[in-house]
Fold:
Amino acid sequence: MKIKSNPQFSIVIPVFNEEGNVLELTQEINMAMKGLGNFEIIFVNDGSSDNTSEILKKIQGVKIIEFRRNFGQSAALDAGIKQAEGKIIITLDGDGQNDPADIPKLLNKLQEGFDVVCGWRYDRKDDWSKIFVSNVARRLRSVLVDDKVHDAGCTLRVYKRECFTDLDLRGEMHRMIPAILRWRGFSITEDKVNHRRRMSGKSKYGTSRTVKGFLDMMLVWFTRKYDSRPLHLFGTIGLILIFFSTLLLLTLALMRIFYEYHLSDKIWPLAGMLGFLTGVQLLVSGILADLIIKNNTKGRSWMIKDVLENK
Structure:
């Protein structure tokens, strides 16, 4: 099978030490996409240390992106998406747990007018610990970023290509893609998909990924609320500190003048001055951050979804 030109669909698959899964996964994708249109399969080898690279090179009709070392799933997805040529981007994991047979169902859902369709692993076949952490993360996301999807960790998704215009993925940001795109005004839905047990290889899930995911969630929350107005955050906190610190210092001054309250052995004057100076620093930092953003912002802060001409 030759690599197809001008594909309608681009299937992006990040892989890391998946030598036992890539060949069967490719065969399943070819079967699932049969009759749907022209497509390309892009494997991003994220610094595998096993025989994944050698096996991929033997598979006909796929595009392979090789990383020099392991950069992580978000970086692999970012590289694959930027190399994709299709109008529709399809992503899935390389461990075989996502079922390619669900792709046609997600594509049909996309035709209903959505920009993104996310897979929802309704009946997960993972360890209880992974499921527990995912449930906790989902509750945090509902409060901080409100992405309105049940399963932000499911890589099986279909996107319209324009979703990734001026979007760079790093860290563990692949989990935050639905939240970022919803914030940008794209329409997102989800559909239940099959989830299978891993048949080969080891899971790459670990505590460090959980911590990184939480930090990226906090970054998205901050960006969503204060991306173009950091002064509102730092300035508000700074003014509150200045107000209460000034109130404390005035109270101490009045107590010293009228009630001969001794301050030499008290910590309150130091606390008041520290709070006041910290408040001033936060206020100035907010102003400087605001000026930096305004001077370095490129392009528009809005995006056009459609242009209609009434005739």
About this structure: The chain is about 45% helix and 15% strand. Residues 299-311 have pLDDT under 50 and may be disordered. The CA atoms of residues 56 and 110 lie 30 Å apart.
